[in-house]
Design brief:
Layout: H1 6-19, H2 24-31, H3 35-43, E1 49-50, E2 55-56
Antiparallel strand pairs: 1-2
Length: about 55
């Protein structure tokens, strides 16, 4: 279960990307998450996925 609050989601997903997964696509596949839903929710608080950094910034 992932956090519903966008700020908590940001923290959760960036931790997973930093410590466990080499890409957002891989994280979403393995955690069975909807990549579009995550990117839209985080865009709502002005955070966007940076492939080079493998983080939402």
């Amino acid at each position: 279960m992932i956090p519903k609050d966008p700020v908590m989601l940001l923290s959760f997903i960036n931790l997973k990307l930093r410590d466990y997964y080499s890409s957002l696509e891989q994280a979403c596949d393995e955690l069975e998450l909807d990549e579009k839903e995550i990117t839209e929710k985080l865009a709502g608080i002005d955070y966007h996925y940076d492939k080079e950094k493998n983080q939402f910034v």
